[in-house]
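Sequence in, structure out.
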Amino acid sequence: DHWDRLVLGMEIDRRQVVDESVAALLRPDDLTRLAFGGAASGVTEGSMLFSGTVGKAGPLPKAPYRVRIELTDRQRHRSISHEFEVVPLQPPSGRASSI
């Protein structure tokens, strides 16, 4: 009933980089139209579509850094969040890194 008023948030190292309404996201029918061309013409059983989120302010920092993502319902004063750390991967021994 108030889905479009939920807020997506993201912090990187405790600095807010995203604070945007869910309404800013493309609707599923718009995503499939863009990805598969036409209303649902290109969507077949078993199709899968990975998509992103709203844009963030500025580039990502060099790893390691901490990320906190949150979906907030300001009307009902509830939220769900998750935190994780981004770390650089080490190349397998004996192989040069292309990173």
